[in-house]
Design a protein that fits this description.
Blueprint (H helix, E strand, L loop, with lengths): L10 H18 L3 E2 L2 H27 L1 H30 L2 E7 L2 E10 L2 E12 L7 E10 L12 H11 L1 H8 L1
Antiparallel strand pairs: 1-2, 2-3, 3-4, 4-5
Helix pairs in contact: 2-3, 4-5
């Protein structure tokens, strides 16, 4: 992690810095991160931008009268893509900051904070070893104050954060012990 200081009074900065540190730590423990959620988000976003750029170019090149029928459909598709992107972020991602696996165990981690309450919350879902093709999920919620891994002047200290994750999440504890 860099030596950049952040404001300890800014919850979004505290959360974002901590969110960025979590995948780095899990990847250092040989977890395999899945980027499918991010890839879909980027695909929807870039498709909308391409449609907007193409519509602008066609209007600039050929004028409004020749392109107004295409522009109508471009606006409809752009609206549909942005609606799908919003729905994807809200209903599917739901604050997920990590999705991956360790061996045959799948894990997803979502983070959140409560306004005016300086505490970091994680919702962890991981598969349980099961017989057959079905996946059984274990869920756990953990929480800790940001002061555990941020100094009073806004420095992020990775070791206490990693120790907190290892002490609370058995899968991470096992991977850190290897």
């Amino acid at each position: 992690m860099s030596n950049t200081k952040i404001s300890v009074y800014s919850q979004p900065d505290l959360k974002n810095t901590t969110d960025d540190a979590l995948p780095n730590y899990l990847n250092s423990l040989k977890f395999q991160q899945s980027h499918v959620l991010t890839d879909i988000r980027l695909g929807l976003g870039y498709a909308a931008v391409v449609i907007a750029a193409a519509t602008f170019y066609l209007d600039y090149k050929f004028g409004w009268e020749k392109t107004k029928d295409y522009t109508l459909w471009a606006v409809v598709v752009y609206f549909a893509l942005n609606s799908a992107l919003t729905l994807w972020i809200w209903a599917v991602e739901k604050g997920k900051i990590y999705s991956g696996s360790s061996g045959d165990v799948l894990i997803t981690i979502a983070s959140s904070v409560t306004k005016h309450y300086p505490s970091y919350k994680l919702k962890i879902r991981q598969t349980k070893p099961s017989k057959g093709d079905s996946l059984d999920w274990d869920e756990m919620d953990i929480e800790a104050p940001f002061t555990k891994w941020f100094t009073s002047d806004g420095q992020f200290v990775a070791k206490p954060f990693q120790q907190w994750l290892s002490s609370e999440i058995p899968l991470i504890r096992e991977a850190a012990a290897k």
